[in-house]
Amino acid sequence: MKRVNKNRIKKDPPIKQVKPEKRQTTLAGGTVLDKFNAYRDLHAQALFSSLGRMLSTPFNSIMTIAVLAISISLASGFYIAVVNIHQLTGNLQTSSQISLFLRDEVSDVHAKKLSENIRDNQSVQTVQLISKDQALAEFKEYSGFGSAINVLKKNPLPIVIQVLPNNTLTDKQSLTDLLKSFQQMPEVDFAQFDLQWVERLQAIVEVAQVFATLLNILLSTAVLVVIGNTVRLEFYSRRAEVVISKLVGATNGFIRRPFLYTGFWIGFISGVSAWFIVTILMLILRGSVERLSGLYQGDMHLLFLSFPETVFLLFISSLLGIMGAWVVLFFELRSNKLQ
User: Fold this and answer.
1) What is the pTM of this model?
2) CATH at residue 149
3) For 249, 260, 270, 281, which has the most beta carbons within 10 A of its beta carbon?
4) What integer pLDDT is reported at residue 337 of this predicted model?
5) Residue 84 domain flag
């Protein structure tokens, strides 16, 4: 028998064992990073393909966006109008001040101490003391009867303390209580304050706020309906593509994705257009409003949409577009014809 040389026998290389973690990752279809990249690419493709479909039909897209931009600009315009009304009412607080007419026997020193005591009241914002000489000088300047006043031997005008209360336009009860407390002071002969004017102004501001809120809700509903109908028409134009996709196993999320991005683009572009419309209208009105404010010796400047308000406007318009598209697709994809 021939001896076999053990040195000539080649040993097989050892088999490398795959770690369980790598084997499971391979069977699952890639790493987590690969899945994230695929998910990102799918959304990017749906985002830009939906924009391309809108640009392929420019006339229909422009008409839809124009209608939505006008609706959104109306809602934004009434909102910014209410904001400017609040600014106007803030500037008119000095017109609703309380005037305290002191008795004739009250001296200037006593009136000054009284005004300092009133200034310490937490319900009071500012206090201004007008002496008899100051009142007489103002009367001569603005009344036009300066020569007649010079004939008088005694100054008939009383000392006046002008009080500007806090929360003048929001709390009527506190104003009434403050007025009663001033009327009970022994130094005060008469306290003048137009509560009815303040109440009317409060009612006007409240009506404007409620009207703006209802209008925003109504116009938001209109935006949802218009965007939903637009997405619905596009869905029916691509109905054959949707049916074939479901037959080959496409999920509702995969089918829904490009239509949701279509709603997003419609809402976002409409919000941007509405911002330009509101800004242009405010620029046109700014000169006239400031000129009118100057005639009444006011210092009112129109307020525009701030940066946070602009971001919120774009967010809401985009969200309305996505919601309108989602509601339509929710019912369409669950209809019996597409099962």
Assistant:
1) 0.66
2) 3.30.70.3040
3) 270
4) 56
5) yes
Q: What total of structural domains would you count in the chain?
A: 2
Residue 86 Cα distances to 49, 82, 148, 199, angstroms: 45, 6, 43, 15
Q: Report the alpha-carbon distance of residue 327 to residue 320 in Å, rounded.
A: 11
Which one has a higher pLDDT value, 332 or 201? Answer: 332
In a domain, 64, yes or no: yes
Helix and strand numbers (H, E) in the chain are: 11, 4
* Residues 69, 205 within the same domain: yes
- Domain match, 206 and 188 both: no
* Longest CA–CA separation in the chain, Å: 158
**How does residue 26 score in pLDDT terms, banded at 50, 70 and 90?**
very low
Q: What percent of the chain has pLDDT over 70?
A: 78
Same domain assignment for residues 176 and 212:
no
Q: How far apart are CA 250 and CA 256, in angstroms?
A: 10
- Is the model's pLDDT at 302 over the cut of 60? yes
Please state at what angle helix 195-237 crosses helix 252-295, rounded to 10 degrees.
150
Do 330 and 289 belong to one domain? Answer: yes
| Judgement on whether residues 47 and 140 belong to the same structural domain of the protein | no
Q: Do residues 313 and 319 make contact, with C-beta atoms less than 8 angstroms apart? A: no
